[in-house]
C-alpha cells in the first residue's frame, strides 16, 4: 500500500535523467538544425543515430518491452516513471527505441507474429535498424469504431490483394521505415469482430502510394510525418497475414492498451517539463513592477498544475499496476480513464506555460507550442476522448447496477 | 510500488462496510426523526448512543488514533480507506468515536497535555462519554492567518483570565460537550508565532456565553451546531494551560495536518455515495422517452465523477503515506494539495447528483443537499482554499528554483 | 442598434432604486425577525403588508403586467432592468406584487380565464389581497416532460373530480394563498399534447391535503414554503376549468416563457448584489498582510464576475426584445439560452462572494448562502438545464442544417 | 433599447455575405495553392490582388474607417457585424483593405500624422497599394507594459538614429510592405509616459535587418509572417517623427482600443464559422451506429457554443456602442472585458469543432487548426489576458468603492 519506486526502477531512472541532461536536451536544437540543413526535411538528422548508439550501449534500450530478452524487462508500473522522463523531450523516445508506432508494432509482432515474420521484421526493429508504420485509420469513416473500416484484403491464390485509402500513417515518410502493419477486412460478412485482419506490407511494394503529408497545427513532424497512403491492388504473399484471417480486431485490442498508457506516461513528462519552464520564466520576468511569479493568478496556475500533474500521474500508475496484475482487459476502465484525463491535463498545463512565455510561447523559441500541438492530437489518437468517456460511463454504470440491488428506493 | 490495502485494513474495512449496511444507513432517518421529536433539536437522539455502544463492542472504535492503546492503532494510510467509508454518512463518524472536533482534540491532548489534563479530559473523550469543542476562529479577523487572533489570556495569580469573542465553535450546543480548548494570546509582544497559547476551559465556567447558533446554508447541524461564543473575564486555574505559554501556534500546527486529511477522506466517501445515488436514480428515471442514464451528458458526468474521485483518492492516499513516512511538516505541500482539490471535487460530484435528483436533490428527500452544504463549508474550515493554494505555489516555486539553477536561459 | 433604456424605464428604475434603499434593504432583517417571533414561521410578517401598501401608492405595482390597465404596462425589455433591481432582495418582488408564482398565475388568468374566473381570482391577485399556487410538478415522474403528468381530472356531472399527488407547490403554506391552478389529465387517450387541462381549485376544498413542507438546502422559505399536496377526490364545479378540456399544455407553454425570463432578470440582480458584497468585503478585510482585494485571484474573480454578469444581462435583454418583437414561440431558443446560462452564472458569482465572506458567507450573517440556495433551485425550476440545453441544440442544428445546404463537403 | 442593425449596416452586410460566398470561400484553397507554387512562400498570391480590385469596385473598401472620405464611414457599432463576416476567413480582411496591422496604422496616421506624412504613406495604404508594419514589441522585456521598451531613438542633427531589437513584427516579410511605424524611447529620463516616441522608417532603410520569421504553432503565416527585426544605427530624417517627441505612449493608447475590438469582431466570425463546420460534420458523420449530432455531449457543445458566441457578440456590440458614444477612454473597461472573453470563447468553440473533425481537425483539411492557432495568439497580442483582467478588476473595484460608501457594514 505504498507508492515508492523499487530499486531497479530508481536506478534506471537516475541513469535516464543523467542521459537526458547530458545528451538529449542539449541536442534538441542540433536535431532541429540538422533537419533544416538537409535538401528536404524528410531526411534523418544524423544526431539521432549517434544518440541511439549511446543509449544502446548504456543499456537504456527497449525499456518498453515486458520480456527481458531484448531489454531490462519491465512491468508497466516499472516502465511508467521512465517513459515519463523520456516524454519530456519529443526527440527522446526514439533514442531509446521506445517510440510509437514502433513500440506497439514490436509488441504486436512479439505476441502474434510467426517465427518467420519475427525474424524478418521484429529483429531489425528491436535493433533499431528499421522503423515501421501502423496502418489503420481511414479518412472516410469514424475509425474510432473499428468495425467501420473499409480497406479490403482479398485472397487471390498465394497472395492477398489490398485496396483502400488510409490516413494519419505516422512515420511513413521516414526513409528508415521499411514495414507496415495494415488492418483491413478479409470478410465483410463475418461476425462484427471477425471481419478484420492484419497483414504485413513492406514499404515499396508496388501499388502503395504515399500522398502528401498531413501537417498537425502547422507542424510537419519531419522526418516521420503523417500521411495519406493509398493501396491500389497491392499484392503480398499469404504468409504476410498475421495470426490468421479474422483475427485483426483481437490483435488491435491487444495493441491498444499499452499504446494508450505509454502516451499518458509521456504526456506527464511533457506537463512536468512545461511547469518547469513556466516557473523558471515566471521567476525571471518582471511586469508592472513585480516578478511574474509573485502575481496571484500565476501562483494559482502553478499550484493547480502541480495538483493536476500529481493526480494524473497517480491515476496512471494505478492503471499500470492494474494492467500488470489483473490484465489489460479487466483494466480497460482504468486505461480509458487515463486516456481521457491525461491529455487534457497536459494541455492545460502546457497552455498556461505558453501564456506565461508570451510571444515566445506560441512560437518556436520554446518547445511549448509544439508540445501543445502534440498533446492535442493525443485527444484523438487511439480513439477520441468521447469514446473513452463512454467506456468509463458504461463500465461504471454496470458496476453501480450491481451495488444498486441492495439500495432502498426512496419514495416521497 | 503498489496500491493495495494491507490485510489489517481490508479486514477492518469489510467489517465497517457491514456495520454501515446494518446499522448506519437504516438509522439515518431514525436519527432525523428523533431529532425532530425532542422539545428542541438540541437534545441527543438516543439512537446515536445505542450505535456507539455497538461500534465499541465491535472494536470499531477510535480508529483514528495512531497509538494502539485505545484502538487498533492505524497509520494514516491504513485509516484513510476506513474514514472514507464512515464519510458516506454524516451521522457515522461519531458512532465510531471518530468525529471532529473530538478527534483533533484527542490527538492534541494525547500529544501535548499533562498527565492530569489527560486523566480528566482525554480519558472520557476516548470512551465517548463526553464531547469537546475547539475554540479558535474569530469573527472580526481573517482567522486563516493565526497571528490575527485577538482573544486575550492574561495571567492573574493562580488563574488565567480569558476575554474574547469566537465563532464557528462546532459542537458547543451539544449537551454532552464538557470541555473547550481555546486558542488566544498570552503575549501580544512576543515573536509572531510565540504570542499564542492554548488553554482548557470547562463548559459551564462563569463568563462563557453561548450565543445563537450559526446555520450553514439553512442547516442547524443539531444537536451539535456551530455558535458564537463570548468569553467575559472567564477564569480557569493555571494548570489548564496546555504545554506552556507561547506554545499555541506550535500546537495548532500539529493539530491541523491530521484534521485536514481526515476531512478529505470523509469527502471522498461523500462523493462516492453521491455517485452511487446518481447512477441509481439515472437508471430508474425516464425522461423524454429514455432512461436518464442513457443520456449523453449524464454519462459524461458519471465518467468524470469516477475519474475525479479516483484521482482525489490516490492523491489523498499519497499524502497519507507521506505523513506516515516523512512527517506532517515535510508533507505539508501534499496536505495542502488535497485540502484544495478534494472538497472541490466532492462539490462537483454531489452537485451533479443533486441535478439528477431534481426537486428531491435540493430538498431533504435525499441526503445530497445536506452533503453539499457540508462539503461546501470544508472549502473554508481549516483554512480557505486560497491559503492552501498559496502554500502549494510557494513550495513548488521553491522546489523549481532549485531545479532552475541547471536550466539554460533562452535568448531570442 | 443601441442598448440604452428609454426614459420611462429610466424613471421607474430610479424610483425603484430609491425605494429599495429606503424601504427594502433596511427591512430585510425586520422581516426575518418578525418571522421568528410568530408562533410558527408560517405567519406573514406584518412588515410585508406595510411595504406593499407603500409600493402600491408609489405606483411601483404590477410592473410585470404588459397590459396597462393595472400597472404601467411595460414590455419585457422595459421590465427587465426593473425586475433585476427587485431581484437584489429575496423579499422585494412580493412588495411590488411581482413575485412568482402569482405573476405567472395572473398572466395566465388574464390571458385564458373566463370573465367570471377573472372577477373572482384575478382581481384580488392584482390588488395583492390574496396569493396563489401553481400545481404542476409531480414527485413520481420527470415533470420536465409535461406529458408524464399523472394527476387525473375526471368529469362527473357538473363537477370535476381531481386525484393525484403533487410537490414543490410553492406558496401553498402562506395563509394568504386562496387559489390553486392545477394541471392534470382529462383524457389520457387524446393526442400527446391534448391530454392535459388546467383547473382552478380553491384552497380549503375538501380532499386537498397539504403535507409537510420541502426544505431547500435547509431553508424553509417561510411563510410561503414548498410542499407536497395530495388531492383525494377533490370536487370543483365544471366552471373552474380554464379555457376548456385539453388546453392545459397550450396554457402551460404560454405561461413558461415569461416565467423563465423573470427568473433570469432576478438572478442578474442577485449576482450584482453578491458582487457588490464581495468587493466591499475584499476592500475591508486584511489577510497575510494585505487587503483581500489586492490579492490576484480575488481580482480575477471580480473581473470574471463583472464580465459574466454583463454578458448574461445582455443575453437576457436580447431575449426580452425577441419576445416583444417576434413572440415567445419564435424566441424560444433565446429563452432556453438564458434559462441555461443565467442561473449558472449567478451561482458562480454568488459562490465567489461566499468564499470571500468565509464563515459569514455560508451562514446567515450575509444573504449570500440563501441567495445561492435560491439560485441553485432555479437550475431545476421550470425545467432542468438539460432540457433547455437540448432545446438550444435542436433549434441550432435545425438552423445550421438550412445553412449547410450551401456548404461544400470536404473530401480528403 | 433595441439590438437591430440599421439599414445601412444591413445592406452592407448582405452585400458582404454575397461577396464572401462568391469570391472568398471558393478562393481560400486557390490562395493556399498559389502560395505553395511560388519559389518561396514569401510572394503574394496573385488571387489576393484580383479580389482586392473586385472589393474596391463593389464599395466594400476601407470599411473600418470612421471618416467617410475613403470609405462608407461607419461607427464601431455599424462596423462590428461587417468585420465579423470578414473574420470568418483568414484571407478576407485584407481583400477589403481591413486587415491588421494596416488598419491600426492608417487610423494612427489619419489621426496623428502630418500632411506630408499622410500624402506619402497614408494615401497608398488607403488605396491598398502598399502595406505596413507596426514595430513595438521587444523580446527581452514584458512589452505589455509599454514603459519597459528599450529601443532608442536619438536625435543627431537633422536625423534620428534608431537602435534596438524588436519581434513579432507582423507583415514585415510581405514584399508589399513599405513602411514601419516604430515605437522607441527618445528620452529615458522623462516622465514615465513621456519617454516614448513613434517614428516612420521606410522598409529598406540601411541598418534594418529582418531576421528569420517566427512561426506560430508551426504556421509561417506567409506571405506576411512575423519576424525579429534588428535596428542598427538606422537613420531617418527628423520629419519622420510622428506628432513630436514624447508623444509615443499617447499615440499607442489611441491606436489600441480600435485594434482590440476589431480582433474581437473577427474572432466572433471565426467562432461562428467553426460552429457551422461542427454542425455540418456532426450531421454527416456516423459513429457507433448513430449520427454524431445525435450524441448528447456533442449537442451540449453545440448549445454551449451558441450561447457563448451570442454572449460574446452582445458584449462586443456593447463595447462598440460605448466607444461610439462616450469615447475609447471611458469605454476602456468594456474594451478590456471583450479582449479577455472573446479570444477565450473562440478558442473553446474552435477546439470543439476540431475535436468533432478528428484527424482532419488538427490538420489542414479544414481551416480549424489554423483558426485555433490564430485565435490563440490573440490571447497575447495587444496585451495578454492577465493585463486586461487587471484593468477590469481595478476599474470595477473603483466603481464599487463608490457604491460601498452607502452600504452598511455587517458585524457579528
UniProtKB/TrEMBL annotation, chains A, B, C, D:
InterPro entries: Acyl-CoA_dehydrogenase (IPR050741), Acyl-CoA_Oxase/DH_mid-dom (IPR006091), Acyl-CoA_Oxase/DH_mid-dom_sf (IPR046373), AcylCo_DH-like_C (IPR036250), AcylCo_DH/oxidase_C (IPR009075), AcylCoA_DH/ox_N (IPR013786), AcylCoA_DH/ox_N_sf (IPR037069), AcylCoA_DH/oxidase_NM_dom_sf (IPR009100). Residues 246-394 form the Acyl-CoA dehydrogenase/oxidase C-terminal domain. GO terms for biological process: fatty acid beta-oxidation using acyl-CoA dehydrogenase. Pfam families: Acyl-CoA_dh_1, Acyl-CoA_dh_M, Acyl-CoA_dh_N. One of its GO terms (cellular component) is cytoplasm. Its cofactor is FAD. Gene3D superfamilies: Acyl-CoA dehydrogenase/oxidase, N-terminal domain, Butyryl-CoA Dehydrogenase, subunit A, domain 2, Butyryl-CoA Dehydrogenase, subunit A, domain 3. Keywords: FAD, Flavoprotein, Oxidoreductase. Residues 133-228 form the Acyl-CoA oxidase/dehydrogenase middle domain. Residues 7-129 form the Acyl-CoA dehydrogenase/oxidase N-terminal domain. GO terms for molecular function: acyl-CoA dehydrogenase activity; flavin adenine dinucleotide binding. Coiled coil: none annotated. The keyword Flavoprotein applies. Belongs to the acyl-CoA dehydrogenase family. Homodimer. This is Acyl-CoA dehydrogenase. It comes from Oceanobacillus piezotolerans.
Amino acid at each position: 500500500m505504498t507508492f515508492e519506486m523499487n530499486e531497479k526502477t530508481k536506478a534506471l531512472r537516475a541513469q535516464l535523467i543523467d542521459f537526458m541532461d547530458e545528451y538529449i536536451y542539449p541536442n534538441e536544437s542540433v536535431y532541429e538544425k540538422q533537419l533544416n540543413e538537409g535538401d528536404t526535411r524528410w531526411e534523418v538528422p544524423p544526431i539521432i543515430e549517434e544518440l541511439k548508439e549511446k543509449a544502446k550501449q548504456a543499456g537504456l534500450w527497449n525499456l518498453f518491452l515486458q520480456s527481458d530478452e531484448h531489454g531490462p524487462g519491465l512491468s508497466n508500473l516499472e516502465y511508467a516513471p521512465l517513459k515519463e522522463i523520456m516524454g519530456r523531450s519529443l526527440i527522446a523516445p526514439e533514442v531509446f527505441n521506445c517510440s510509437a508506432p514502433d513500440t506497439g508494432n514490436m509488441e504486436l509482432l512479439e505476441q502474434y507474429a510467426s517465427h518467420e515474420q519475427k525474424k524478418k521484421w521484429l529483429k531489425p526493429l528491436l535493433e533499431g535498424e528499421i522503423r515501421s508504420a501502423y496502418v489503420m485509420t481511414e479518412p472516410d469513416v469514424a475509425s474510432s469504431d473499428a468495425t467501420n473500416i473499409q480497406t479490403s484484403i482479398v485472397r487471390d491464390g498465394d497472395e492477398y490483394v489490398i485496396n483502400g485509402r488510409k490516413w494519419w500513417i505516422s512515420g511513413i515518410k521516414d526513409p528508415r521505415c521499411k514495414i507496415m502493419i495494415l488492418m483491413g477486412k478479409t470478410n465483410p460478412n463475418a461476425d462484427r469482430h471477425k471481419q478484420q485482419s492484419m497483414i504485413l506490407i513492406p514499404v515499396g511494394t508496388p501499388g502503395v502510394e504515399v500522398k502528401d503529408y498531413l501537417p498537425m497545427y502547422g507542424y510537419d513532424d519531419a522526418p516521420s510525418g503523417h500521411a495519406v497512403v493509398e493501396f491500389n491492388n497491392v499484392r503480398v504473399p499469404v504468409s504476410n497475414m498475421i495470426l490468421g484471417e479474422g483475427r485483426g480486431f483481437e490483435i488491435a485490442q491487444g495493441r491498444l492498451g499499452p499504446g494508450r498508457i505509454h502516451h499518458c506516461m509521456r504526456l506527464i513528462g511533457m506537463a512536468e517539463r512545461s511547469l518547469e519552464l513556466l516557473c523558471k520564466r515566471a521567476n525571471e520576468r518582471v511586469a508592472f513592477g513585480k516578478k511574474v511569479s509573485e502575481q496571484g493568478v500565476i501562483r494559482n496556475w502553478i499550484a493547480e498544475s502541480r495538483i493536476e500533474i500529481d493526480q494524473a500521474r497517480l491515476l496512471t500508475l494505478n492503471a499500470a499496476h492494474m494492467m500488470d496484475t489483473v490484465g489489460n482487459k479487466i483494466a480497460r476502465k482504468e486505461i480509458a480513464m487515463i486516456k481521457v484525463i491525461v491529455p487534457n491535463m497536459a494541455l492545460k498545463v502546457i497552455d498556461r506555460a505558453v501564456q506565461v512565455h508570451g510571444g515566445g510561447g506560441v512560437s518556436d523559441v520554446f518547445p511549448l507550442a509544439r508540445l501543445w500541438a502534440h498533446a492535442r492530437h493525443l485527444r484523438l489518437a487511439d480513439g477520441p476522448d468521447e469514446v473513452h468517456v463512454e467506456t468509463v460511463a458504461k463500465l461504471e454504470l454496470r458496476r453501480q447496477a450491481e451495488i444498486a440491488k441492495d439500495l432502498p428506493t426512496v419514495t416521497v
